[in-house]
Amino acid sequence: MNKDGRYIRCPECGEKTDVKVYEDTTLLHFPLVCPHCKKEFIINVIQFKMTVDKEIDN
């Protein structure tokens, strides 16, 4: 297994978040909060490919 991870970037502002994933990481319906723009999203991540299910209004 490759130990190189990547930080998830915010779909809104593009800054790095505090969440790190690896190639074998699978996230489904994961609540992602950006520490920079303070927006919240529900995301899916499979093999470094992220899709946004929806943006949550605060």
Low-pLDDT residue spans = none
Strand order within the widest beta sheet: 3-4-5
CATH class: Mainly Beta
The helical percent reads under 10%
How many helix segments? Answer: 0
- Spell out the helices and strands N to C: EEEEE
Named at the architecture level, the CATH assignment is Single Sheet
- What does the radius of gyration come to? 11 Å
| DSSP E strands, number | 5
- Annotated CATH topology: Rubrerythrin, domain 2
Number of domains: 1
Structural class: mainly beta
3D structure, described in words:
The protein has 58 residues and is mostly beta strands. It has a single domain, classed as Rubrerythrin, domain 2. It is 0% helix and 57% strand. It contains no helices and 5 strands. It has strands spanning 6-9, 16-21, 26-33, 40-46, 49-56. The strands form 2 sheets. The chain has a 3-stranded antiparallel sheet with strand order 3-4-5, with no helix packed on it. A two-stranded antiparallel ribbon has the order 1-2. Strand 3 (26-33) and strand 4 form a beta hairpin. The chain is globular. The mean pLDDT is 93.
Topology (SSEs and partners):
Layout: E1 6-9, E2 16-21, E3 26-33, E4 40-46, E5 49-56
Antiparallel strand pairs: 1-2, 3-4, 4-5
Please tag this protein with its features.
single chain; 58 residues; mainly beta; Rubrerythrin, domain 2; two-stranded antiparallel sheet; 0% helix
Please summarize what this structure is:
The protein has 58 residues and is mainly β.
